[in-house]
Predict the structure of Cyclic nucleotide-binding domain-containing protein.
Amino acid sequence: MFLPLIDRTKSRAALRCLFRHTTALNIRKGETLFPKNTFSTAGQIIMISSGLVNSFLQDDEFGKINLWLGQEGSIYICQGQNSSRPENLNLEAIEDAIVFLIDYEDLETCYKSHPELAELFYSHLLPCAMNDVSERNIIFRLPDAGCRITRFRTFYPGLYERLPKELLLSYALCG
């Protein structure tokens, strides 16, 4: 996932630092990343290398709250533990998935000795994550389910057909 973005011939040490702080996880279809009520994504950058996942919060009062769909190339940046509202998401695989987790503070530490990693974060990871957040906000604010589905199909081409109906409805009827 990183190799096309970083020059391997000039940045081997940066890549080693990045890989040292990256956890790769396989999630099988129907499985969640963490057991119920055990979440540890706060402060993590979540990157989907392959497959399809749904991220959600589990809330005692409201139940399961779907927040984000991740497919190949998707990136989500969770609020950290020091945030006023740390974000502990769980991921459920809609299809078998490979997920990378990088602790944001570890990545910041790598910046100090490898500035090209700061460039990677600010020129690729952050804009990709922000674009996805922006598009989700637009979808969630559209006036009716028909408009939301149309926009969803435009932003996530081919995803509509891959989602279970109940999950699709949770995103389409969110308004």
